[in-house]
Amino acid sequence: FMNAEKNKSLTGKKVMLTAGPTYEAIDPVRFVGNYSSGKMGFALAEELAERGAQVELIAGPVHLTAHHPLINRIDVTNAQEMFEACMESFPHCQAAIMSAAVSDYRPEHPSELKIKRSGDHFSLNLVPNPDIAMEMGRMKHAGQVLAGFALETNNEAANAAKKLVAKNLDFIVLNSLAVPGAGFMADTNQVSIIDRENKKEDFPLKSKAEVAKDIVDYLEAVLKKRET
Ligand code: CTP
Ligand code: CA
């Protein structure tokens, strides 16, 4: 029988994606988090699924809906939950794109009760969260492709290249906050992709849906090279 899915370039591939921020509880009503909207990650999920990939979308708290039936969405709240979901999913995947803005720290002792205002100075003790991308880089086997994002405000290319090596990524998507119209909340983004040979490819400012196409094209090329 003929099936429309059959001719798509990523049919038969399973790809893990992390997206959105993580929220780290301070108490039942407050958290430590960041401004990530998850739009770039969800655009990637739609693009991957559109090309026939089975997508494991591990999403932090976002106000977005995934539409494509090939997207299996797993909702998490904090970095520890995201880490556990990734540990479970990544071994079954041929590729992973780590686009989540994971909180680097979490409150050491979240309060079970709402913390009362006292009028005094108040400080939060934060402890480091697991580096999920780095753990995936350790787990990765020869056939798997692992990609990350780097959000930088200064020394962009050098910092991104360092992360690529430290986390054992195959390529890293550099997201510049210096470019107007790029970054967290925007519907547009301007990225560069840096590979293991330190080759840098710059893409123009585009909608996140168009940027997702560029990133998935790049991923496909890397996957193809692996197979030959
Ligand atoms: N990342 C992750 N888990 C973390 C922190 C980051 O998986 N706890 C991933 C991000 O999803 C991204 C890459 O690592 O793909 C780089 O994230 P970024 O925050 O830019 O880098 P960090 O290594 O956290 O360094 P810093 O925030 O100090 O720049
Ligand atoms: Ca970080």
UniProtKB/TrEMBL annotation:
Any one GO CC term of the record: phosphopantothenoylcysteine decarboxylase complex
Cofactor binding comment, as recorded: Binds 1 FMN per subunit.
Pathway in which the depicted protein is active: Cofactor biosynthesis; coenzyme A biosynthesis; CoA from (R)-pantothenate: step 2/5; Cofactor biosynthesis; coenzyme A biosynthesis; CoA from (R)-pantothenate: step 3/5
UniProt-listed Enzyme Commission number(s): 4.1.1.36, 6.3.2.5
Statement: the UniProt record of this protein carries the keyword Lyase: yes
Positions of the DNA/pantothenate metabolism flavoprotein C-terminal domain: 10-220
Binding annotation for CTP: 104, 114, 149, 163, 167
Keyword Hydrolase belongs to the record: no
Stated family: In the N-terminal section; belongs to the HFCD (homo-oligomeric flavin containing Cys decarboxylase) superfamily. In the C-terminal section; belongs to the PPC synthetase family.
Function (record text): Catalyzes two steps in the biosynthesis of coenzyme A. In the first step cysteine is conjugated to 4'-phosphopantothenate to form 4-phosphopantothenoylcysteine, in the latter compound is decarboxylated to form 4'-phosphopantotheine.
Protein name as annotated: Coenzyme A biosynthesis bifunctional protein CoaBC
Source species taxonomy: Bacteria, Pseudomonadati, Bacteroidota, Bacteroidia, Marinilabiliales
Full-length numbering of the shown residues: 179 to 406 of 409
